[in-house]
Automatic annotation (TrEMBL):
Reported cofactor(s): Mg(2+)
Family annotation (SUPFAM superfamilies): EF-G C-terminal domain-like, P-loop containing nucleoside triphosphate hydrolases
Binding residues for GTP: 204-211, 229-233, 251-254, 317-320, 343-345
Protein name: GTPase HflX
Keyword tags: Coiled coil, Cytoplasm, GTP-binding, Magnesium, Metal-binding, Nucleotide-binding
Any matching Pfam family: GTP-bdg_M
InterPro entries: EFG_III/V, G_HFLX_dom, GTP-bd, GTP-bd_M, GTPase_HflX, GTPase_HflX_N, GTPase_HflX_N_sf, P-loop_NTPase
Gene it is expressed from: hflX
The keyword rRNA processing is annotated on this UniProt entry: no
Species this protein is from: Cognaticolwellia beringensis
Record-annotated Hflx-type G domain positions: 198-365
HAMAP family per record: GTPase_HflX
């Protein structure tokens, strides 16, 4: 849309330490983001400031150091581990003579690389356009000139205004397409609600091991890698849980510190699976020294997407990286599971997770002894399909005596067929 220096793969990284928690970022996480984007870091420049410099974000001496490093290492992109104002990006670019990318743009770029589904690509494009719309003003001066010349004299719209209009039109188009996708998702959720199938959503900090656990439980073959944002598009699979029956398990995008608001807004439709879940499995990399901070960041995003009140089961993952830690279930004062310790990579403690899920979701279980006459063979077949028969034998009259155990919702579905007749078969 306007002239820019060509982005490259050889980068100078810039990171500043601030005393304020709201602006402080983690340099190790920044390096992982750069690696996830497929960019080679040539040099890292660090410094300390109390507040950002209004013109260059870093001080005048530090920005000159960055420019010197660009020329010394022949870099063609500068990456900042902070969110920059459009004017700051423009000023630094003019001095360094190469493209400058802030943390938000870097994360958006990683999301653009990872998106695979039609919906995911639309959501990322919408987030990028929202971000870009605030940065059009820093394009070069030709954007502010009106079109002129023979055949080009129009109503006096500048190139900048034209770009803004095209941008708005594209954003409106994408929103309409996303609304259609969201309606399809709502239909799927309504169908699951009618069938009373509970949904469990995996949430957690990026690279905590959500997709690895998802694959271990469902054998789904979802892409999992030791990098940030390996998963972007949500994946749903059915699993069977004792005393509960069928359950929908949803794998979602990982969260990160200061997740760009444009991304949160764009992915709200996808994150609806999280907001409307019966239970959240909050995956924690228990071997990460920053796990407490990561938990806080996840809680922050959950509150932002209005999912902070959904019940959670904490999953302490990667115990194989710790010494003398065995798989176990931690319980609250009422004996309810609140934390499961396991290793998804090694497959250790997975059975404990299913036990905890059964206890958290399978609170309402029906147990009955049914006396079915030979004419009730259809009902007997349905009970076998539900896999709920615990005992079976016959009396002297040829009646089939069945012991059954199943969730309340499946029992209620059976009663809808012929409540009076089925209740007549129950032995007291």
């Amino acid at each position: 849309m306007f002239d820019r220096y060509q982005a490259g793969e050889q980068a100078i990284l810039v990171h500043l330490d601030f005393p304020d928690d709201d602006t402080r970022e983690d340099i190790q996480e920044f390096e992982m983001l750069v690696d996830s984007a497929g960019i080679t870091a040539l040099n890292t420049i660090t410094g300390k400031r109390n507040t950002p410099h209004p013109k260059y974000f870093v001080g005048t001496g530090k920005v000159q150091e960055v420019a010197d490093a660009v020329r010394m290492f022949d870099a063609n992109i500068v990456l900042f581990n902070h969110s920059l104002a459009p004017s700051q990006e423009k000023n630094i670019e003019a001095l360094c003579q190469c493209r400058v990318v802030d943390r938000t743009t870097l994360i958006l770029d990683i999301f653009a690389q990872r998106a695979r589904t039609h919906e995911g690509k639309l959501q990322v494009e919408l987030a990028q356009l929202r971000h870009m719309s605030t940065r059009l003003i820093r394009g070069w001066t030709h954007l502010e000139r009106q079109k002129g010349g023979i055949g080009l004299r129009g109503p006096g719209e500048t190139q900048l205004e034209t770009d803004r209009r095209l941008l708005r039109a594209r954003m409106v188009n994408i929103r309409k397409r996303l609304e259609k996708v969201e309606k399809q998702r709502q239909q799927g959720r309504r169908a699951r609600t009618r069938a009373e199938i509970p949904t469990i959503s995996l949430v957690g900090y990026t690279n905590a091991g959500k997709s690895t656990l998802f694959n271990k439980i469902t054998q789904a073959g979802v892409y999992a890698a030791d990098q940030l944002f390996a998963t972007l598009d949500p994946t749903l699979r059915k699993i069977e849980v004792d005393d509960v029956g069928r359950v929908i398990l949803a794998d979602t995008v990982g969260f990160i510190r200061h997740l760009p608001h444009d991304l949160v807004a764009a992915f709200k439709a996808t994150l609806t699976e999280t907001r409307e879940a019966e239970l959240l499995l909050h995956i924690i990399d228990i071997a990460d020294e920053r796990r407490s901070e990561n938990i806080e960041q996840v809680e922050e995003v959950l509150n932002e997407i209005e999912a902070g009140d959904v019940p959670q089961l904490l999953i302490c993952n990667k115990i194989d990286r710790l010494d003398d830690v065995e798989p176990r279930i931690d319980r609250d004062d009422q004996g309810l599971p609140i934390r499961v310790w396991l290793s998804a990579q090694q497959g250790i403690g997975i059975e404990l997770l299913f036990q905890a899920l059964a206890e958290r979701l399978g609170k309402q279980i029906i147990k009955h002894l049914l006396c079915l006459p030979p004419s009730a063979g259809k009902l007997r077949g349905q009970l076998y399909q539900l896999n709920c028969i615990t005992d079976e034998h016959y009396d002297e009259q040829g009646n089939c005596l069945l012991g059954i155990k199943l969730p309340v919702r499946e029992w209620n579905q059976l009663l809808k067929q012929d409540e009076a007749e089925i209740e007549h078969f129950i032995q007291t």
